[in-house]
Design a protein that fits this description.
eight-stranded mixed sheet, four-stranded antiparallel sheet, Rossmann fold, 2 domains, 29% helix
Length: 238
């Protein structure tokens, strides 16, 4: 696994249970990744303000891709970079007027839950907006076209001179699929959706953070090296 120079993880359902907190064992595993010389990235649909409140150890990550690809955040420096424009004027107000509740509004993302996805689609259509809807295990996320976890990951990797082929990606839900398949090696935790499990290179035996611990134990015994990989034919497998 030495050819892989970064580990990119989803948050909810991956390093933590849905809506939960990262347990100490998972945090220690993440620290092992850093000590191995690899970059550690968090790729999540959450807003930075949510992450700060629920996971105080954010600085274990070198970079955070937040709001499903719309925001880059350096947790050590507290620096935030926008990768997408804010929500269009009137969009959130119209959703509320049509009874959508709850609504979460970030720097670029607008999110709600099923069954409000049908109203979201109708408002986008009625207002003639260029927006895209992403589903995430009952969550509904709205972003500008071209903004997703893949675009956010690419922006983060550019900072370190890395390519997606050098990354191990880990996730569990619909909005993780494209990001996982863009990585050189894709992993689903045991609790992932079956459709995701069928597309990845490895499914862990343990769910959530236990799956991260399991994966880290497989990769940190070999230090990272700068060599790159350009094809999937040489990927690690067991």
């Amino acid at each position: 696994m030495r050819r892989y120079r970064a580990l990119a993880c989803d948050y909810d359902g991956t390093i933590a249970p849905e809506g939960g907190r990262v347990d100490p064992g998972t945090l220690q595993a993440l620290k092992k990744v850093q000590r191995s010389g690899r970059k550690l990235l968090l790729v999540t649909g959450r807003r930075i303000s949510e992450l700060v409140s629920i996971f105080p150890a954010l600085a274990v990550f070198d970079c955070i891709v937040a709001e499903n690809g719309a925001v880059l955040y350096n947790p050590k420096a507290g620096e935030q970079t926008m990768l997408a424009p804010p929500p269009p004027a009137g969009f959130v107000e119209t959703l509320r007027a049509r009874g959508v509740d709850p609504i979460w509004v970030g720097s670029a993302i607008v999110a709600t839950v099923v069954p409000h996805d049908s109203i979201v689609h109708s408002v986008i259509r009625d207002l003639k907006l260029e927006l895209r809807v992403f589903m995430n295990k009952g969550g509904v996320m709205v972003l500008p076209p071209g903004v997703n976890k893949v675009s956010g990951l690419n922006a983060a990797l550019k900072r370190y001179g890395l390519q997606p082929e050098q990354v191990i990606g880990v996730g569990d839900a619909e909005n993780d699929e494209a990001f996982l398949l863009a990585c050189g090696y894709s992993v689903a935790v045991a609790n992932a959706l079956q459709a995701i499990k069928q597309r990845v290179d490895l499914v862990t035996k343990c769910p959530h953070g236990g799956g991260i611990v399991e994966l880290v134990d497989r990769i940190v015994d070999i230090p990272a090296k700068p060599a790159t990989i350009s094809t999937h034919e040489h990927k690690y497998s067991e």
